[in-house]
Each structure stands twice: as C-alpha cells, then as structure tokens.
Amino acid sequence: MSFLEISNLTKKAPELGLSVLAGQGGLGRHIVTIDVNRPGLALAGFYKNFASDRIQVFGKGEHAFLEECSGPEIDRIKAEFFRYKFPGLIFTHDNKPPDSFVETAEKTGTPLLSTPLSTHNFIVGFSKVITEELAPSSSLHGVLIEVFGVGIILMGASGIGKSETALELVERGHRLVADDIINVKCVGNTDLYGSSSDLITHHMELRGIGIINVKDLFGVGAIRGRKRIELVVLLEDWNQTKDYERIGIDDEYVDILGVKVQRLVIPVRPGRNIPVLIETAAINYRARMMGYHAAKDLSDRINEQIQKKISSRSST
To answer: Do residues 105 and 23 touch, judged by C-beta distance below 8 A?
Structure first.
C-alpha cells in the first residue's frame, strides 16, 4: 500500500506552510488516502462513519465551534476525538488550537499542525501533493527523453543502442529525463509521468566510455526532472523475416500501470539514422494529437480516387 509519512508531507510540500505544534512523536504516521475530513459532526458527538484514516482539517467553522465550547464540553470532545488514531490534524488560517488539544496531542503522539493558508487553498494544495505521492508506481528499464516536447521511452535489448541514441538526441537539443531505470507514476489513472532515481539522476552509461553526467557536459538545458510519457519506441535488430509497419494506420499499444501508450517498433541496422527517425516519430505524434493523421489522410484520398473511378466506369 502506498503511503506518505506526516514528516515527509512537511518536506515535500513547503508551499503548504505547515508547522508542527505538538505530537512530534507521531510524525511517522502514514497518510494512506488522498481525501481529508472536516470533523464538524464529530465535534458535535456524531462519530458514525467517522473517517479516522484521513487527515482532519479544522477550518474557521470548527475553530469557532471549539471557542464557543465550555470547559466540560472541550473535555468531552477531547476524550472522544483523540480515541481515534488518525494521521494528524491541521488548523488552517493560522488559528490556534485549544491548549487542551495541544496537551492531548503531545500525550497521544498525534501530529498537530497549523498552516496560514485558507481551508480551501490548503485542501487544493494537499490534494495535489498527495495524489502524486500515493499514485501507483513502477520501474521500467529504458531511457526516457523529451523530443520536441513529447515524452518518449526508448526500450530494447541490452546493447541495442538506447543510451547512444539518447545521447545523439541530447546533442541535437532534446532533453534527457532518465537513463537505465525509469520511475513511473500513474496520476489520476490516466497520465503517466517518468523520472529518474535521485541516486543516478542526470547520469548515463555509455559502453566504452563509462558514466557521464549529462548536466555537467551539456548544461541544465539538456536535462529535465520529470516528463509525461506519451510514446514508447522499441528498438530491435533488423529481422529480414519480420513484416514491419510501413503504412502507420494500425496503432500498437503497450500497457503501463493500466494506461495504454502507443508503441512504435523501429528496426536497427547500419545506415539507419535512428535519432532522426525518433524526431520524426515525435513530430508525427504531435501532428496526430492535433488532428492530422498523414497515413489515414493518404488512405482516404486513395480510396476516394478509387471510388471515383468505379463510379465513372459504372456510368459509362
């Protein structure tokens, strides 16, 4: 199960402006859902279907309710509310929680935090961060490179020339995202994003040369930290007996984390300029996303001419 520790939330999302008020001992608690809970009904004593697995957000309404409560009422709320081991509670608008909440959070090891953001802005920001952090993930062997704005994964057998091809593309002005191991996340069940691991980011392995740092050799314009994956290119040794795609009408797809990604198979042999072919594939993909499909357009025009000739012969 994917999760994010409360302590890492403060590190990964500094824009949320979170500060820990109490319960430092519980900062290792796990956030396992992208949803948050506004505990208004719970404060009033209704705990049926209480979402205790979510972050508890105290906005202006909840804070105003607590301020109106008497001492015995606060004690009741405190006793009932902190029975649940939720990931943490956050007060928005920089509102100060009751002293009894701070004391109980410290005793129970429940992370108590505050943020200067409004409740709406905090929830929007939190949802954006946690959606990506809890997204399904996997690792792929290949090279991820941005070519004319299109995120392309180069795949193929070891030694086929993936890294060399990517290096040539970098020299031609495109950007490297990851070499060898690609960390992939599926965000929103529809979009795939790839990145490199922190340990080997910006590095490439070239047989005969060794490890190089692309950022140091080619500058920051030659690298990118993360990119949406839109196309997979499989490089393979040319097989004379195999019938490779020559028209481009029928698309082939590969499944990555439940998302279908278009795949092209490019045969490799001496004399073929693979980087230029990949650039052409990227431009062609962009054209198709804009509604222009060259192969289908040509096929439609040919069929139209055939139909005209058939009609002409039928009328004579």
So the answer is: yes
Q: Which CATH architecture has domain 4-133?
A: 3-Layer(aba) Sandwich (3.40)
Catalytic residue among 29, 162, 185, 202: 162
Confidence grade of residue 275 (pLDDT, cut at 50, 70, 90): very high
CATH 3.40.50.300 domain position(s) in the chain? 137-296
Per-residue pLDDT tens for 10-53? 888 999 999 999 999 999 999 999 999 999 999 999 999 999 99
Residue with tokens 């692309």: 214
Active site residue 185: no
180 is annotated as an active-site residue? yes
Distance CA 155, CA 161 (A): 10
Full-model pTM: 0.77
The CATH architecture one would assign to domain 137-296 is 3-Layer(aba) Sandwich (3.40)
Catalytic residue among 83, 85, 141, 309: 141
**pLDDT (tens digit per residue) in 201-231:** 999 988 889 999 999 999 999 999 999 999 9
What residues have CB less than 8 Å from 164, skipping those under 6 apart? 206
In angstroms, what CA-CA distances link 5 with 186, 188, 264?
20, 21, 40
> Which of the following is catalytic: 30, 128, 180, 263?
180
Q: Where in the chain is the domain with CATH 3.40.1390.20?
A: 4-133
Cα maximum dimension of the chain:
101
List the catalytic residue out of 11, 48, 246, 313: 246
Q: What's the Cα-to-Cα distance from 201 to each of 195, 198, 215, 253, rounded to whole Å?
A: 8, 5, 9, 28
